[in-house]
Every structure is written in structure tokens, then in C-alpha cells.
Amino acid sequence: MPETVAETGDRVTLRVKVNGTEHTARIESRLLLVELLRETLDLTGTHVGCDTSYCGACTVLLNGRAVKSCTVLAAQADGGEILTVEGLAQDGKLHPIQRAFGESYGLQCGYCTPGLLLSTYQLLQHKKDPGEKEIRKAIAGNTCRCTGYMNVFKAIRMAAKLSKEG
Ligand code: FES
Ligand code: FES
Question: Ligand 1 centre and the CA of 59: distance in Å?
């Protein structure tokens, strides 16, 4: 347990920065990160699509790393920085990754989309011009039941292009 978490019984106080905003919350020590985001902080853009740690709809960035937030305790994020889908758009303008998914029809029902956007974000942090193998690896933990993935690949390639253009 990180030192900054003050323990009292099975409840803890934690501090996290989510999308640039500091939050302090008293939570049950068993609360999952996805529950903290959705239920405590009302950031419902992060989805829950399974109960087997399989679908990746709950993917967020924790300290710059993509994690399935249904498999992380909120207390494990104490002192950390989290980026969720709500943090991608800036000043009312969609992030290039969001634009690319829209323009390439990389989504249909959209349930998987927040997770795919964050996995793409992490990929493009490390690879400005990812090849097909790298794209496949980056989204291997994200399941989409609608698109057949072809437009998702197209969207990620466009996202790389738009991100480079700034
Ligand atoms: S909700 Fe499916 S992996 Fe987290
Ligand atoms: S767009 Fe429906 S699950 Fe991916």
C-alpha cells in the first residue's frame, strides 16, 4: 500500500490527479479504479464490458501506462496521475485520435472506443509512426464486437498522421 494512503479500518483516503484535476476521496480499500472513476468521480466515459478482465473497455492511462482499470484497486493509484477519455479533448477541441476514429469510422456502437482511444494514445506516445504489428500489439487487449477492426486500424494510422501534423 502506498505510504500516502491513510488507512482506517477498511476505508482509506486517497489522492489522485485525474485529467489534470486533483481529487481526494474516502473510499473502501477494495474499491476498483474503474469504480472510483465511474461512481465516485462520475467519469462514466470509462466503460465496463466484462467481468473477466478481457474486453479492455475500461482501459485508462495510469502514470502514462495503459491499464485495465477493472483489474486495479483505486488505492493502488494513490498519488498517481490518470488520463481517461474525458481528458483527451482540450479547449472544446477533439484530440487528433478522437478525430481520426470519427473520420475513419473506427467505431459503431462506441462501447469499446474509450479503451481503444487510450491504448492508441499510449502507442503514439512511444511510436510516432507505428507499423501494423505494433498497432496489433497495442490494441491486443481491446475487444471490438462491431467493426471487424479494419476501420480501427485505419483510424490508428490516421491518428498517427494527424498527431504528427499537430
Ligand atoms: S471491463 Fe472488461 S477488461 Fe475491464
Ligand atoms: S464499436 Fe461496438 S464494440 Fe467496438
Answer: 7
Helix ranges (DSSP H) in the chain: 33-35, 96-103, 113-126, 132-138, 150-165
Domain boundary (87, 104, 128) is at 87
Q: 103 and 79 share a domain?
A: no
Which numbered atom of ligand 2 lies nearest the CA of 145? 3
The domain that holds 115 is classified in CATH as 1.10.150.120
Dig out the grid coordinates for 78 from the structure.
494513490
Range of the domain at 141: 96-165
pLDDT value at position 3? 47
What's the CA gap between 43 and 47, in Å, rounded?
A: 10
**For 95-136, how does the pLDDT look when each residue is reduced to its tens digit (9 = 90+)?**
999 999 999 999 999 999 999 999 999 999 999 999 999 999
Closest CA to 40 of 10, 12, 79, 71: 12
Residue closest via CA to ligand 2's atom 4 equals 144
Q: What gap in Å lies between CA 166 and CA 50, rounded to an integer?
A: 35
Let me know how long the chain is: 166
